[in-house]
Amino acid sequence: MATKFKKIIASVLAALLLVPMLGCLADAPLKVQAAAQELNGHKLVAENDNYALYMKEEGLAVIVFDKATGAYMESAVSYDDGKNNSQWMGAMQSALVLNLIYSNVDNQQADLINDDITQEVTYTDKGFSAKIYWKKYKLGMTLEVTLNEDGITARIPDESIVEEEDTNIGTIALYPYLGYSYLDDKEGYMFLPDGNGALIYLDDKEGRFNTGYTGVVYGMDAGFVESDTTKLWRDRYEMVNEANNVIAPVFGMAHTSEGIAYLAVVEEGDQRATIEASPNGVSIDYNRIFARFTERRLYNQPTSNNSTSGSFKMVEADRSHSDLQVRYLFLNGDNANYCGMANAYRDYLLNGGFLSGLPDEYRTRIDFLGTERESWIVGTSAVVMTTVDDIREIYEDLEQQGVTDLLSVYKGWQKGGLYNVPITKYKADAKIGGTGSLTDLIKESEAKGIRMYLYSDAMRINPDEQNATFNVVKKINKRKLEEETHKDVYEEFMWLTPARTDYLLDKFVKSYTKSGVNSLALGGITDTLYSYNYSGTFYSRHQCAESYYNTVAKADESTDLVLQQPFAYLWDHTESFLDMPLYTSSYIFEDESVPFLSIVLKGIMPVYSEYVNFEANKEEFFLKMVETGTCPSFYITKESAANLIYTNSSDIYSSEYSVYRDDIISYSGELEAVHKKTAGASIVGHEIKGNGITVVTYDNGVKIYLNYSTEKQSADGHTLEGMSYEVVE
Q1: Which residues lie across from 213 on neighbouring strands?
Q2: 579-635 pLDDT, tens per residue?
Q3: Which of 51, 389, 432, 648 has its CA 20 to 30 A from that of 601?
Q4: Burial class of 704 by CB neighbour count within 10 A (0 to 12, 13 to 18, 19+)
């Protein structure tokens, strides 16, 4: 109890130190505090003007001390409530926690406390390097921790990892308890990269949850056999929405009561990393969030081509090869919150050259569906939804209503319709008007300031329309990767190898740009990443990401390129972000949805929402776009969506232009008016006040008040009707 009492006193003192600095940090500079030589049993190993790094050789635990406020975060649990066994205690005290695969079982923990290890620590002027070896398992690696001006970096070089016998490394968790808290002893939250962003508060959860958050960075790996949890009604209709992908490799912890927080960026090894967060009550009474890196996985290997004949467990023949690195960007005072984290990530991307600022322009996005296919007596027949002339008429109608700032993605323009993929040459379907007519429309639109992009899914191949015998990927168990659609016309698609994608996309781009047009929208390869087998060779997600990055970069050189919900490693090669999620997966343990990604990108990249058509609560969705500075998106057809009922687009239940015309005009007028007041500005403040009120602050002084409740509410002297907003300059 004495240790806990000391922690409470330290927390109180840290909170008191924050009292004079409730305003802008730039206006009230903080007095830098001297770093003591020892803190909570850890010795000082490095310091700079902003932070001090402490380390304890047992477990290689660290403390990051903020010299401006006196607040700090620990990586090792200093208070034991007596409820935890030795395995949990080992994990709570260790810088590294390994999950080992032994005899095809992956439940053996290795840590730095319970195991017999050798440890050679070398100190530098900026931190330390520790060479670690587990005697029992004959495994080893080196951990390097470096103090930076904005926090610390923890790194495991790939070449330092050794495995000398049959026991293999499954996963490595890096500083799994950095910034932990016990029950509700601190105010604050954990930031999750779920959807646009989510928080788990550091309050006492009272044992309500038996699981936490696990988000696979860049989505699940389809190259491994995953259990199918999709619930289908009548074996056809999906009843549960899929969880959002982790678009950016980030997570965070904020102790708001002490004015300290960090944003962690997984800089290397992100292609095989997961972000894990557990609120108190999930196994133990501690809140923790961290990155776990996968080195090897188990998978089921069928015993024959007959899927019902059984299978046996196999382990990947070789481990993943990549350095593992997490950068912790520390924040203090008024910046120690999720908005400060988002601003820190924006600066990180811009300063690191991972993203260049783009013009902050407003456009209403209207995507069109050209043709689809439905089953016929022999083969399929065309279902024409929107021709070139239809689009021209829609543009002219909107122009007469003053809606001229438009961006469009034309899907299903190619010969054979939407799912005749891959596209290998620029040849438009004759039923929409043909190639010449489409080229004329694109050039006419460009002359009017309308940006019109042709859509290409560069990853999938339709085996019913094209030869899919060669150049398609297999899962790690050497079975073809087949994507079921649960639709009637085309029941499955296969995936092209990255090398084949690169070849065919390059072929299409050359054919397309030869016609004097070059606006391209890419999907498939932008929001999917996987391991695969091809011709007996295994390719990792690291290699897949490198291939896709090079393919996208090459396409960007010769086209005006926009990407569909691109993962963060591709952001430097898109002119806009299409299909930004404005919500989360709504896990039961999430306490709050926050617009993290929107705050990061607002002002430096045009961002477009997912389709308004398919949102159940359009009033709330509209306010979300106002809140986040997101441009609206509509999926439009000239003909009724009822015509699609027997196609693979049968889930498009409402798309007719005549139905959405007034919404397009209304949304364009209101959202463009808001954008004119925030153009080029970044979001520097975001506050959820309660009673449905949210306040967004821009660095040009503009504030937007939003009322998400159905009742009239007031805040800061502003009264808002239910489900409304007000822009204050």
Answers
A1: 277
A2: 999 999 999 999 999 999 999 999 999 999 999 999 999 999 999 999 999 999 999
A3: 51
A4: buried
pTM (2 d.p.): 0.93
Can you read off the two tokens belonging to residue 187?
Answer: 């105010």
CATH no. of 364-456+510-525+556-680: 3.20.20.80
Q: In this structure, how many other beta carbons lie within 10 angstroms of the beta carbon of residue 374?
A: 19
Per-position DSSP letters for 13-24, written without gaps between them? HHHHHHGGG-S-
- Distance, in Å, from the CA atom of 76 to the CA atom of 55, rounded to the nearest integer, reads 10
CB 138 within 8 A of CB 165: yes
| CATH number, span 682-729 | 2.60.40
* Closest C-alpha among 180, 188, 174, 191 to residue 280: 180
Give the SS3 label for residue 468: coil
Tokens 């990927």 belong to 473
- Say how far apart CA 118 and CA 222 lie, in whole Å: 38
Which phi and psi angles does 407 have, rounded to 5°?
-130, 135
With 0-12 CB in 10 A as exposed, 13-18 as middle and 19+ as buried, what is 43? middle
Q: Phi and psi (nearest 5°) for 661?
A: -55, -50
Beta bridge pairs of residue 63: 54, 74
Where is mean pLDDT largest: 224-228, 356-360, 592-596? 592-596
HSE-CB at 440 with a 13 A cutoff on CA atoms is: 10
What does the DSSP 8-state code read for residue 643? G
Residue 324 has pLDDT above 70, yes or no: yes
**Confidence (pLDDT) at 3:** 37
Task: Spell out the domain ranges in the chain.
Answer: 2-81+175-351, 364-456+510-525+556-680, 682-729
**Residues 292, 437: Cα–Cα separation, whole Å:** 52
